[in-house]
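QUALITY CONTROL LOG
STEP: pairwise intake check
CHECKER ROLE: data steward
CRITERIA: each record must contain a sequence immediately followed by its structure tokens, with no blank fields

ENTRY 1 OF 2
RESULT FIELD BELOW
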Amino acid sequence: MGYFVEVSGKVKIYVEDLNPNAEKAIVFLHGWPGDHTLFEYQFDKLYSLGYRCIGLDTRGFGNSDKPCWGYDYNTLSDDVREVVEALGLRNFTLLGHSTGGAIAARYMGRHKEYGVRNLVLVAAAAPSLIKRPNFPYGVEKLSIIQTINDTYNDRPQMLRNFGERFFFKNTSEAFNDWFFQIGLKAAGWATAAVAQTWINEVLFEDLKKISVPTLIMQGVHDKIVPMELADEQHRLIRNSKLATFEYSGHGVFYDQKDEFNDILVRFVENRLY
């Protein structure tokens, strides 16, 4: 079932809530420039195993409201906190992919891990997506600036180019069109603003504050979030495990969806390793 939760500023956040009566909940935070439907192949499987699957559309993306403000990590994590409180969630697993992983990291630091039992970071854009003077990993700042410029000048072509780098396995033309349409649902200004946040903000201190069991999932062939970022997350989060996927790119949740789902379930059930 789908519904909206109104957060501060009268912004309505769309929530897809599958199997709402189940006791064990997993909250999914999608990456840029997608929405909750990217986790279709997790929702398909996990509800049948007795999990409540809750997918949030980040403000500016998917079915959520698209204001012209609020695309910093503080505000985006505050949105998550307000949804968590509105739904009365406790002892849930928080899963964030890519930018969703960055938002999850800020949530853990800013909101003191409120309600979270386990954390899952999937190809997370943390602690910094771009290279910095004291951080030699990540992507070049100029490439993000180019993405922002392309968003304002030819967003459809930018999305096509992004989709070509997202998955490692070959995907059908129909699947590629589906992925493209998800990106088009976002607002152009939100798409650019979140990309600017990659430049403006870092998450080193947020990662150091994480104390709950954390699973880091990373595709070896990721062309968007380099493998080195997962290594840094593993180093900074003291209670973390790193699972690498040899046949996956950025879209590890689809490239190796069966293995992904299996490892996720084993982690949530404390049966990993």
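ENTRY 2 OF 2
RESULT FIELD BELOW
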Amino acid sequence: MIKVTFYRRNGVYYRFHEEGHSGLAEYGSDILCAAISAMTMFIINTIEVAWESNVEYDIDDETADITVTARDALPESGADEKKRYAISGLLYGYYLQLLDLTEDYYDYLSVKEVEECGGVRKQ
């Protein structure tokens, strides 16, 4: 199962972590895995290239774990307001898209969000 956790701070989406394999099909034939990989790279490239913003990402090729952090979505980042809203909105849109996928692939995909308040995570 692919497990995706989205992190918000004061309601602002700024990070997500993906782990696991869906198990829907064999490696190389798994449409769910391919879709999530493509969407993740779309998110990274849009933030980094289209919006010329910093995005930190770590991809572990062995485990398929991916962590993406876009601190420019947060007010304290110093990024302009339009950029902050665009980045956070993109991450929120990805969250909603994955939630839609869970309707058909609930045995293969889990999505949750965590609200961070003053450094403390609330699930």
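INTAKE CHECK: passed for both entries
DESCRIPTIVE NOTE, ENTRY 2: The chain has a mean pLDDT of 92.
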